[in-house]
Each structure stands twice: as structure tokens, then as C-alpha cells.
Amino acid sequence: MASKIAGWWAVLRKPSAKYSLLALLSIGFVSGILFWGGFNTGMEATNTLEFCVSCHEMRDNVYQEYKKTIHYSNRTGVRAVCSDCHVPKDWTHKMIRKIQASGEVWGKIVGSIDTKEKFEANRLRLAEHEWARMKSVDSRECRNCHSFDGMDVEKQKTRAAKMHKIAQDEKQTCIDCHKGIAHNKPKGMKEESEDDL
């Protein structure tokens, strides 16, 4: 086995008799650009609302709930789509999240939430998993649009201003209070309370 590896390594290290080093480098450079462009295009295509709701599990369940929220329709016309909340913007964290999402693809293949009943039976588990992910990154995706520094508490309702001040003082993150902001809250939540904003 070691001799085969050594033989392949020797072939790879030998200069090409047919092509110049410049030609090989140029081909490699162009191939790299084409690969990166295709890869990046694929990554961005999977971040669209259309892609996210292309399967009936999402289209018939959480998408219908999301369409009734302020993240979908509001007075300013600014819309947050699935990837704005569920996929990080920076490349490294985006790739990690995409790898994690392969588990969701597996769920699609095996049909773990392919009916409304199965989805509702798993809703709490799925929500808790996403809330834990969001909490672990200090609601990074929420903060792409919302920040304590950008809040004008004078324009907030008294209760919201008070709760945001407490959250800031206690180093809380968005998801600590804003569960159910874009989707229905699951039945049986451990911390279901009137305190959620």
C-alpha cells in the first residue's frame, strides 16, 4: 500500500512533458474560480425563501405561520426571510450551519415530519433545538437587524423599553424573550409565560 502511495506521489511531483507549468497553473486557477463560483451560487440558492418553502413540510406548516407575522409584512416593507434568521452571514458559521442542516435533509428523506400531525408532535423538540442554537450564538442572526445600540427606547412601548433595559443589564439575548416571534409557540413549552414580548 505504501509503495502505491509513493508511486502516485512521484507521478504527481514529476513535471508534465506535454504541458507547461504556466498552462497547468492557468487551468488550475480558472478551474478554481469556476468551482468556487458554482459552490457559492449553490450556497446562495439554498438561502432563498423559495428554496426553504419548496418542501411541503415547511410550506404547509411554519411558512403559513410566518406569513402572519411582522417579519413577513409590516409598515416599512422590510422582510426577513428564513435564512435571515436561521443562517449566519459570515462564511465560516454559514458553512457550519449548512452542515448541520444536512440533518434536516435526512429528516425530509425519512419523512419524520411529513404530515401536520408528525410536525406538531416534533414541534417542541425542533423549537428547543433552534432556541438553544440561537442562544449559544447570542442571537447573532437577530442582531443582523436588531441591536440594543440601535433601539430608540423613547419610541417603544413602556413595557418593551423596560424589558429591553433589563435584558441588556442581565446580558440576555433576543431569544430569551422573543420565542414565537415568527412561528407559533409549541404546546407544552417549559417557560411559556406572559413575559414573552
What low-confidence regions span 5 or more consecutive residues with pLDDT below 50? 193-197
Named at the architecture level, the CATH assignment of the domain at 29-146 is Orthogonal Bundle
Radius of gyration: 24 Å
| CATH C-level name of the domain at 29-146 | Mainly Alpha
Mean of pLDDT: 88
The rounded distance between the terminal residues' Cα atoms is 63 Å
Strand-pairing-aware structural class: mainly alpha
Tally of separate helices: 10
The dominant shape is elongated
Strand content: under 5%
Helical residue percent band: 55-70%
Molecular structure report:
This protein has 197 residues and is mostly helical. The protein has a domain at 29-146: Multiheme cytochrome fold (Orthogonal Bundle). Helix content is 57%, strand content 0%. It has 10 helices and no strands. The longest helix has 25 residues, at 21-45. It is elongated. The model is unreliable at 193-197 (pLDDT under 50).
Layout: helices, strands, pairs:
Layout: H1 2-13, H2 21-45, H3 49-52, H4 56-59, H5 62-66, H6 82-86, H7 91-110, H8 116-136, H9 158-169, H10 174-177
Tags for this model:
disordered C terminus; 0% strand; 57% helix; Multiheme cytochrome fold
Short description:
By secondary structure, the chain is mainly alpha-helical.
